[in-house]
Specification:
mainly beta, 3-stranded antiparallel beta sheet, Rubrerythrin, domain 2
Length: about 60
Amino acid sequence: MSTTTLQRWICESCGYIYDPEEGDPDGGIPPGTAFEDIPDTWFCPVCGARKRDFTLYEE
């Protein structure tokens, strides 16, 4: 049993939520990719903000 839950991250600029279960196929990030494993060159698919502009999303 896995106790690891992939966490979602939110763009501080536009509110886009990166969901690891969905990934960002248009941005070259396959489903199942943890946010920490995304290259630093990745950017928000909605507004173009940098990866470092995302914060952990807590419901």
